[in-house]
Amino acid sequence: MRAPTLPEAHGHAHSRDGQTHAHEVYTHQAVAFQNVGVEYGPTVALHGVSFSIENGSFSGIIGPNGGGKSTLLKTIVGLVNPTHGQVLVDGRPSHRMRRTIGFVPQLEQVDWNFPATVWDVVMMGLTPSRGLFRGHSKANRDAAAEALATVDLADLRQRGIGELSGGQRRRVLLARAIASKPSLLLLDEPLTGLDPSAQHRFLDIIDALREVGTTVLMCTHNLTCVSARASDVAVINGQLIAYGPPDEVLLESVLADAFGHQLVVHASGEAFALHHHDHRPGWPGRQ
Q1: Each residue of 63-110: pLDDT tens digit?
Q2: Residue range 165-207, pLDDT digits in tens
Q3: How far apart are the C-alpha atoms of 58 and 206, rounded to whole Å?
Q4: 283, part of any domain
């Protein structure tokens, strides 16, 4: 298990108005959490979280329900502002890098009765290039079509989102997130409720995205998936408990610190953390 790391940096200086000004240039880290803390009123959701994630990696984020996993993702995409510390994406404050980030929210955060088609939802992930009321360019339409092909939903582009299965819903949200070709992809509980076949199908798409350089962070309660697929694992329960390769982190002592008695092991050998959700749905564009 390796110690949490902060961004690698090297300095350079230049002169302006007769004075020397130093800068630091960050390299290699896709995301760096620097002493991140988040408070919701009197409730401390995260405290003193510091670690960094390398470009091109697939990092799993695990921990008990209410432990701050989703909050951690939301600090990256800007849905939650840290009370303390900062989050860097490619060495820059994350709020400046939103165009490079794709986000797949939990299914419970989407109103699947909203009257929209698969195509409509994917186009929501792209900014109209000719003004809000003038529609999308051919480049945007081509990008949406490519995203749907990537997640194997091209044939369902005109289907209403309320008619989709659970696995198809996950994939349409993924298509929306990747339509803009983000360098960083955030996934919040994308496997919950999926059967093993649908899980493997979804993760195979993620592996293909990594092959073209996408960095992936995924919150999940499926510890078996993390063990088999992730390059690194962050264990979160209000603070960072451990971070490193799965075989160094997914140890009984570490999991006991994080989950206590909330683990369930199925007869197949798969391990899951108990969880529940209580989210209010929104329209499909909501993150």
Answers
A1: 998 999 999 999 999 999 999 999 999 999 998 898 899 999 988 888
A2: 999 999 999 999 999 999 999 999 999 888 888 899 999 999 9
A3: 9
A4: no
Distance CA 23, CA 5 (A): 20
Domain CATH for 215: 3.40.50.300
Q: Which domain holds residue 241?
A: 8-13+23-273
Nearest to 122 by CA among 154, 96, 100: 154
pTM of the shown model:
0.81
Q: HEC states along the chain?
A: CCCCCCCEEEEEEEEECCEEEEEEEEECEEEEEEEEEEEECCEEEEEEEEEEEECCCEEEEECCCCCCHHHHHHHHHCCCCCCEEEEEECCEEHHHCHHHEEEECCHHHCCCCCCCEHHHHHHCCCCCCCCCCCCCCHHHHHHHHHHHHHCCCHHHCCCEHHHCCHHHHHHHHHHHHHCCCCCEEEEECCCCCCCHHHHHHHHHHHHHHHHCCCEEEEECCEHHHHHHHCCEEEEECCCEEEEECHHHHCCHHHHHHHHCCCEEECCCCCEEECCCCCCCCCCCCCC
Output the six-digit token pair for 35. 């002493």
Question: What's the chain's length in residues?
Answer: 287
Position 111 in a domain:
yes
Residue 176 in any domain: the answer is yes
Q: Is 39 inside any structural domain?
A: yes
pLDDT reported for residue 186: 97
Domain count, the chain: 1
